[in-house]
From TrEMBL, chain A:
<keyword id="KW-0472">Membrane</keyword>
<feature type="transmembrane region" description="Helical">
    <location>
        <begin position="102"/>
        <end position="135"/>
    </location>
</feature>
<protein>
    <submittedName>
        <fullName>Tricarboxylate transporter</fullName>
    </submittedName>
</protein>
<keyword id="KW-0812">Transmembrane</keyword>
<feature type="domain" description="DUF1468">
    <location>
        <begin position="27"/>
        <end position="167"/>
    </location>
</feature>
<dbReference type="Pfam" id="PF07331">
    <property type="entry name" value="TctB"/>
</dbReference>
<feature type="transmembrane region" description="Helical">
    <location>
        <begin position="61"/>
        <end position="81"/>
    </location>
</feature>
<feature type="transmembrane region" description="Helical">
    <location>
        <begin position="21"/>
        <end position="41"/>
    </location>
</feature>
<feature type="transmembrane region" description="Helical">
    <location>
        <begin position="141"/>
        <end position="164"/>
    </location>
</feature>
TrEMBL record, chain B:
<feature type="transmembrane region" description="Helical">
    <location>
        <begin position="61"/>
        <end position="84"/>
    </location>
</feature>
<dbReference type="Pfam" id="PF01970">
    <property type="entry name" value="TctA"/>
</dbReference>
<feature type="transmembrane region" description="Helical">
    <location>
        <begin position="200"/>
        <end position="220"/>
    </location>
</feature>
<keyword id="KW-1133">Transmembrane helix</keyword>
<keyword id="KW-0472">Membrane</keyword>
<dbReference type="InterPro" id="IPR002823">
    <property type="entry name" value="DUF112_TM"/>
</dbReference>
<keyword id="KW-0812">Transmembrane</keyword>
<protein>
    <submittedName>
        <fullName>Tricarboxylate transporter</fullName>
    </submittedName>
</protein>
<feature type="transmembrane region" description="Helical">
    <location>
        <begin position="322"/>
        <end position="343"/>
    </location>
</feature>
Length: 177, 502
């Protein structure tokens, strides 16, 4: 059984740890602080004061929201910082766990990128077939059957039945769509 | 009994062959969605929303709410048979449901779960039938100050009643508000937080956020742990139905307790998940058989399922009457109403009588149809779970991508969906709750504009929210709830330091 097989239950805590919960907690709190800083900067540009006869300026509401978010994230950061004594750091994910997530996510990024070029139907068929072949270790005919089936059904559903146009590429154009 | 005659008329609108067929289709899709990981009530409805654009609003909402009922039913199947909760609100169902299945009583557990879900939902629908018109009539008198007060109460109750740390809830909620404020400001027309990117002009679409946060996030989590369904047999003999139903009357007290807890948690947006845990906890404490809980007690399945369904259903009450959804799924349905050109809120009951009563009637019908369907088709639905996850995972990613694209026909939204997916994974790992974020994203604009209108009327005086007893009492309740965790923390510290000093 490979470490990537998603059809097998894995004990993530027993595998080689990648990031501890504490590190991730700190990183996310910092990201929150950065977001709040961005919002504050733009709210200040828009003005957050009270304008006579106009009410609060456009930046008023986001400004105070961002300040609240900043305070809450500072507290979250302060609570995440101290290293728990004695006990081992709890992992958020393991190296194989991360690889398993990459196995679905990295191709998904490529899939979304491909949509603009070859249309959503062809790229989703390739994505499903590739994932089933490489990760699921299915025989080629099964992978092709599922991939073409899903692409075909969605094409029929969206383009013909519900008339919701989705991005199409050269292949669909060749058939006159 | 004005409501009853209106309801009868509603049954007339809902009971057409076309609508019943949509109900059956919706429930089937809903159960499939509830059973599969990565697709849940909220994002399932969000993805299917574009398919209803061409239907008339009544049929469209009947189909979408049926998907919701189906998802609520479906979560219990995986929880009992495989010890894997298909939905967060069925976690508490696994406590006693799976032990029952291990002892060969899976059929009783399933029948018990479905029946109690049905009871909880019908209780909540009855509540909606008689309470909603009154609430709507009352809410017609609301001005901006009152609306802001109710919205404030909604968000304060997340802080006061949520599980986990309130600071993370607060941060998650504020992020939702901040994301909601991106784009064109509705009051002054100035651009906010777009930094010159045209794609951000329309702001962040909450449907895209829902699909990414719940769909892609869940797929990542399931990939990380791996997923293998192995477990109990799903054979359901019809005599199990009779056998289980005979046991139910003695659980009358549990039913009532769970219904009340569920409705309360649904109307105030506590949501179905905490409701199911509270229902379980209460039953464990008050039931005569409480000491048996966790070992496979039917009552331990009945309690959380009743509460979860009562909460899931009653979450639609504030959505219909005030335009304030009680759960992420209700928020998606609210988004649907807006797209069909209906303005949720008190006026809906005056201007769109046919739609409202058709919807309420369809809630009764949908749950009856749902109960019959799940009781008869369990083996069929359980068979879906034999499909390996390495087929299910990429197919769900594709479905999510199509769903995100159709929200606004934009590739940018598909990229945002991936980003929200990573966010959803991180947030659920680190204990940042997602529902406050989603509701803030939905209600952000409304809350902001009612706040600004109220402040404009009072010329910047915050005491406007306490200017009459109605908004004043709602605001005060909100403030108490918002500061409840802080007060509780102080009290705990106080309580702990005293014995130490003594």
């Amino acid at each position: 059984m490979s470490a990537i097989d998603p059809d097998q239950v894995h004990d993530v805590e027993a595998e080689k740890p990648l990031v501890s919960l504490r590190a991730a907690d700190i990183a996310v709190a910092l990201l929150f602080l950065a977001t709040s800083a961005i919002v504050i900067v733009d709210s200040v540009r828009l003005g957050f004061a009270w304008l006579p006869n106009e009410g609060p300026a456009p930046g008023y509401f986001p400004f105070y929201i961002a300040v609240t978010m900043g305070i809450a994230s500072l507290i979250n950061l302060a609570r995440a910082l101290p290293q728990p004594e004695g006990e081992e750091a709890k992992p958020m994910t393991s190296v194989p766990g991360f690889l398993r997530m990459c196995a679905i996510f990295a191709p998904a990024v490529a899939f979304v990128f491909a949509i603009s070029w070859i249309g959503i139907y062809v790229s989703s068929a390739i994505y499903i077939a590739a994932f089933m072949l490489v990760v699921g270790k299915f025989p080629l005919w099964k992978a092709l059957a599922v991939a073409l089936g899903v692409a075909g059904i969605s094409f029929a559903m969206f383009e013909i039945w519900f008339l919701v146009p989705l991005p199409k590429g050269p292949l669909e154009a060749a058939f006159g769509f | 009994m004005e409501e009853l005659s209106a309801l009868a008329e509603g049954f007339g609108h809902a009971l057409t062959w076309y609508n019943v067929a949509l109900m059956v289709l919706g429930i089937t899709l809903g159960v499939v969605i509830g059973v599969l990981p990565g697709l849940g009530g909220a994002n399932g409805v969000a993805i299917l929303l574009p398919l209803t654009f061409s239907m008339n609003p009544t049929s469209a909402i009947i189909m979408l709410t049926s998907i919701y009922w189906g998802a609520l039913f479906g979560g219990a199947i995986t929880a009992i048979l495989f010890n894997i909760p298909g939905e967060p609100w069925s976690v508490a169902t696994t406590f006693d449901g799976h032990p029952m299945a291990q002892r060969g009583r899976a059929d009783e557990a399933l029948v018990g779960a479905f029946t109690s879900s049905f009871v909880g939902a019908i209780f909540a629908v009855a509540l909606i039938t008689f309470l909603a018109p009154a609430v709507a009539k009352f809410a017609l008198k609301f001005g901006p100050a009152e609306f802001f007060a109710v919205q404030f109460l909604t968000f304060a109750s997340f802080l006061g009643m949520g599980r986990g740390t309130p600071w993370k809830t607060l941060a998650s909620m504020c992020l939702g508000f901040a994301l909601a404020s991106v784009g064109l400001d509705g009051v002054t027309g100035s651009l906010r937080m777009t930094f010159g990117y045209d794609e951000l002009l329309n702001g962040f679409k909450f449907l895209v956020a829902v699909i990414g946060l719940f769909g892609i996030g869940e797929i990542l989590t399931s990939m990380e742990d791996g997923l293998k369904f192995s477990g109990a047999d799903a054979k359901l003999r019809m005599d199990a139905v009779i056998r289980t139903w005979k046991q139910l009357p003695r659980m009358f007290g549990t039913f009532i307790r769970s219904c009340i807890v569920g409705c309360w948690m649904g109307i105030t947006p506590g949501g179905a998940t905490p409701a199911s845990f509270m229902g379980y906890g209460l039953a464990k404490r008050f039931s005569k058989r409480g000491h048996n809980f966790g070992k496979g007690e039917l009552e331990g399945v009945v309690a959380p399922e009743t509460a979860a369904h009562a909460a899931g259903t009653s979450a639609l009450l504030p959505m219909l009457t005030l335009g304030i959804p009680g759960s992420p799924t209700a928020a998606v349905l609210l988004g649907g109403l807006l797209i069909w050109g209906l303005q949720p809120g008190p006026l809906l009951f005056v201007e769109q009588k046919e739609f409202v009563w058709g919807l309420i009637a369809s809630m009764y019908l949908g749950n009856v149809v749902g109960l019959i369907m799940v009781l008869t088709c369990v083996p069929l639905f359980a068979a879906i779970l034999r499909v390996p996850f390495s087929i299910v995972a990429p197919v769900i990613v594709v479905i999510c991508a199509i769903g995100a694209y159709t929200v606004n026909n934009s590739m940018f939204d598909v990229w945002m969906m991936l980003a929200f997916g990573v966010m959803g994974y991180l947030f659920s790992k680190l204990g940042y709750p997602l529902p406050p974020l989603v509701l803030a994203l939905v209600l952000g604009d409304q809350a902001e504009s009612s706040f600004r209108q109220a402040m404009l009327v009072s010329q910047g005086d915050v005491t406007v929210f306490w200017s009459n007893w109605l908004s004043g009492s709602i605001m005060t309740l909100g403030v108490i709830l918002a500061f409840w965790p802080l007060a509780q923390g102080l009290m705990n510290r106080f309580g702990r330091s005293r014995p130490a000093a003594a």
